Each structure stands twice: as C-alpha cells, then as structure tokens.
LacI family transcriptional regulator
Amino acid sequence: MTEEAPLPSERRARLIARVRETGSARVSDLSRVLGVTPVTVRRDLALLVADGTLEKVHGGARIPARASGIGAHTGASTGIALPDATSAGGVDQPTIGMVVPSLDYYWPEVIRGARGAAQGAARLILRGASYDVDQVRRQVAALVGDDGGPGVDGLLVAPPVEGPEATELGEWLAGLSLPVVLMERHLAAGPYREPLESVATDHALGAGTAVRHLAERGHRRVGLVASRTSPHTTAVRRGFLAVADELGLDVALDLGTLPVSDAGWAGEAASVLDQCTAAGATALLVHSDREAISLVEQAQERGVRIPADLAVVAYDDEVAGLADPPLTAVRPPRAAIGAGAVELLTRRLGIAGAEADGGNGGDLATGAGADRPVHRIELSPRLIVRASSAFRG
C-alpha cells in the first residue's frame, strides 16, 4: 500500500517540529526526514521565514530567538541551545559559492575582489572548474548541497556560454532555487530568453579603445590576433572590427590562434608573423598577454623592432608590463567584477541594499527578490599605455 503524501500544512508542521527538536536544521536533513525534495523544503522555508515562524541561517533554518524569549532560544521542548547569530562564525551570514574556470590566470584578481566585498557580509566558498560544461555543473551541484554539500545561499559562476550544452547549462542555472550571478558572462534562459543577472567587462569597448589608440599613433594597417579558446574573443573581435571600420583603417589580418600553452603554438606564432609581414600590418592587438609576449619575443628574434616596425597592444594586462619592452595593454576591471558580483548577490538575498530596493530585499530562503529587476552590469576596461606602442618616427 502506498503511503499518502502529507498535506502541505502537515508537512510544514513536521518541519517546524524537526527544527524545534534539533535547534536548527539544514535543507538536506529536512528533505531526508520529510521525504520530499530540497526544492519543496526551500519553498516551505520561504513561507515560514516570511511569516516569522522560522529564521533563515546558513543552509537551513532555526526558531527565531525573539519568538518566545529564553524558551525559544534554548530550543523550547528540548533545552538544546541554538547558535547565537552574533557569535563567532556568523551563523546568520549567508554562504556564497563561487565557481571560476581558472585559479592561475585572470581569475585570481576577480576572486580577491569578491573576497574583499564579502568580508563581514557573507562566507565565500571557492571551487575551480574549467571551460568544460560538465565540470562546471558538477562543481555547482556540489555547492548547492542537495546531496549533502555545503548548501550555499547563492552562486557566483563563470560558465561556458557557447554551444547547445552551454545553453542547457544556462537553463539549469536559471532553474535553481537560489539566486545566481554570472561573472564575465552573459546567458539567457526560458521561453522568452530572459537574461540571468550578471557583471561583466565591456570587452568590445576595450578592443575599440586599443584601435583608437593605434590610430592616434599613426597606424593605418592594423591586425587582430586572438585566442580561439577565450570566451572574450567574440566581443574583442566585434569591438576591434567596428572601430577599425569607423576610423577607415585597413584590417590587414584577423586571426584566431591556439593558446601559448598548446604544443602547436610555436608553429602558429611563426605563421602569424609571416602573415603580418606579408599583409604589411604595422600594429597588432593580441589577446591575451601570454600570446602577445611570445609574439614580441619571436618578432625580435627576426629583427623586427618593437614598436618602430610593429606596435603591439595586449589584452588582459596580467603580465604585459613585465615584457621587454613593456606592452601597452587593455586592463579589464577584474577585482571590480568580483566585488560587483558579490554586491548584486547580497542585494538579491536581501542582506544589503534593502533601502535601495524599497525595503524589500526578497525571500531569504529562495533568493527570489521578486520586486528587484534583473541587473546586467557592464564595466569599462582601461588602456594602460607603455613602450610597445610609442609614436612612430
């Protein structure tokens, strides 16, 4: 005989009883005890937190200390002490999961920005993934906590964005029962292709700024060399071509290359320089720093003078200033990306900026934030001028 599922009111009564028995309870524990999905538990918590019956804590809920004085704080029926929200460990602070594709290039500064913004407001849990859809999904799933993970309150993610698998990943992220903010990415989901919340660099603007700089230096035949594996290349190319066309410059070459870490890079770099010479290009925008530095080194070995014969602007400015000569570079605001993403997420969770949102920060259990519009923030990169693009002559 199949056991009949309890009515929602009965289920919520059992949920409250469980929280009273244990002092506080996690979503994963409540899901197991009640025999329902974590999504159902989170929905119940949303209602119970909204009416003041429960209080949201990291990964679960507790009976509010204010509900019935000392009895509530001690767990009422059991006398088990509840965690103090003001004690060390910040039990009332949300936990933010952060998934980035790399821990050794570009992203460390984004992470530092996020960590600084989260200081005192949220706990940050970091996971390194890759540009692989399946690995990003595994890392996010581990953070969400339905299978006993940490059960984060919100997510910062930099997922792949191209191809059908990336589209499916975007749909899955949008369907999670907690808020998600994308970093340096744009994705849309649902039947109306509604965008996910995001903080990103305007890479097209950055590339266009580099082209304007080269034109100011007197260059009329310019070229673009961009990594085929970078998710920023599409925007960099768009900005480069748009401004070159606006200024009437000749695009002598527009090449996609392997990353410098690939075994085939040496041969590809030689081919790039051959094509640059054949096309008569006098200036290049190279994405990213590592490829730019390698191209400069190989060009110098051929007797090409930088910048007298060939000006070079790098894109990313991770290590461009350490080259010989130091490379002019476009610098995305990496730390501000991380900080801005944390700020968006904490506002969505309702723990910061409540006044700016009209006092309604959204549902703490689900992160719905129904009255807050989706924010898509674009930050401008900076051009850092160095010796590799000095005036010709």
Summary: The radius of gyration is 26 Å.
